[in-house]
Amino acid sequence: MRAMRSDLNADDLRRLASPRARVTIRGVGAFEIALFTSQAPATVLRFARLAEAGYYDGLTFHRVVPNFVIQGGSPGANEFVGDASFMRDEVGTWPHVRGAVGISTRGHDTGDAQIFVDLVDNPRLDHAYTVFAQVLNGVDVVDQVLEGDVIESVTVLAGDR
Questions:
Q1: Fold type of domain 10-157
Q2: pTM for this predicted structure
């Protein structure tokens, strides 16, 4: 298990001061999320860098559990393969409410790049998984995602777009 080094700097923090991202699902639609830079700065930075590098493009939502979560971002289309390096948990105060976006882990400080979206309020996940975003619009699209649906793109939008 290898931890990712922190690359936070002032320019990135300014650029990501109030960012959003658009997740487009092939044949389904798009949803927009607000990124929580103050709650989970290292996670937001990593997510933004991976998105901008095209990491998520073409990957799938490989796990859909009704009345729980949808999960995606694995090159292996499973819960065990993600980006090569792990990151530290950034467990903040934002609760796992419907539309919260978190980082999947396989134990403490093992988040890789897989994301999940809460389909319902999941208070049992509070303070156990990093929440780094919240669905702003398009929750109806999230509800339509089926196992195997392809992430066409993840686009980071500056705070003024």
A1: Cyclophilin (2.40.100)
A2: 0.84
